[in-house]
Amino acid sequence: MSVENLSNWERYESNRDGLNSKLEDAVAEFKATRRIYDLASNAADLASRTETAKNMRKDVEDTFKTLSDSNAILAKIAPKIKAKELEDEVL
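Now predict its structure.
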């Protein structure tokens, strides 16, 4: 049980920090989007950006799910005060 507990804490910490980084990368990518008026290159650029956005979204959602799952496990075994703190971090 304690090995699983430690594993969940490590996973939680890692994903919490990683989620912030991934969200910052997604915002930077969004801000870097430019309008392209050349119709020939516009379609290729749109396809590339759409694929990048799809991959970033999947990565962020997967990381959040892992973080949320770890949080749910930790909330069951942590004291009530710490469980509330963990819940506030994820929400």
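The longest helix spans residues 39-77.
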